[in-house]
Amino acid sequence: MDINSFVNMTTRAWSLPILSKLHDGVAGRQAPLLAATGAGRTSFGQSLEHLMDLNLLERNPGHGHPLRPEFRLTDPGKAAAELAYRVYSRTEAADQDLLRKSWTLPVLTALHSTGQFSVIRRGLPRITDRALSQSLKLLEDRSWVRRAVDEKSRPLRPVYRAVNTGGLVSDIAGASVRFQIP
């Protein structure tokens, strides 16, 4: 999966939890998925539509009622669901709210190797300086990212590295996502 697809997939809060639960064997109907993810109806419905727009999820023809459809993963959706499952199965339930923030996973993926702010920014399409700064600060507050100052460079520059749970998530996602070389 390339970084653009990954960023698009993570723009809705409940997209990855839905994919993870489908990979885990939760029935593809709305009620079991809604109960398993704990999402609100509106945001859950928007995430389902988003996944269908990305061709990761489709209605299962011949199954379900028109008002209560059943969903299944497409072939690209199976790979995305496996990645989502690996990420969600390795994190604590208390930390999963952080994973639902739109830039958390792309930033951690970009931190697969230690990087400076400008290098991380260059690797992530469409992220603003403010969004990256806020994401790094939030991840640093949760001890998922460690900020250090590179003493050898002049002027001094901060360097970011994924640690603890962030490092685990970074290793999982970083191995599956390809970056374009600028």
TrEMBL record:
<dbReference type="InterPro" id="IPR036388">
    <property type="entry name" value="WH-like_DNA-bd_sf"/>
</dbReference>
<dbReference type="Pfam" id="PF01638">
    <property type="entry name" value="HxlR"/>
</dbReference>
<dbReference type="GO" id="GO:0003677">
    <property type="term" value="F:DNA binding"/>
</dbReference>
<feature type="domain" description="HTH hxlR-type">
    <location>
        <begin position="99"/>
        <end position="171"/>
    </location>
</feature>
<dbReference type="InterPro" id="IPR036390">
    <property type="entry name" value="WH_DNA-bd_sf"/>
</dbReference>
<protein>
    <submittedName>
        <fullName>Helix-turn-helix transcriptional regulator</fullName>
    </submittedName>
</protein>
<dbReference type="InterPro" id="IPR002577">
    <property type="entry name" value="HTH_HxlR"/>
</dbReference>
<keyword id="KW-0805">Transcription regulation</keyword>
<keyword id="KW-0238">DNA-binding</keyword>
<keyword id="KW-0804">Transcription</keyword>
